[in-house]
Amino acid sequence: MIFSNLLQPGSKVVREIKMTHVTLSLDFENANAVRKKAYKFLAEEEWVKLDSVDTVWVIDYPEYNYNYSDDVRKIHYNIAKTLKQCAKDLDIERINYIVQVGDRLAIQRQVTYKYGVAEEKGYAK
Question: 2, 31, 74, 87: least buried by Cβ within 10 Å?
Answer without folding.
Answer: 2
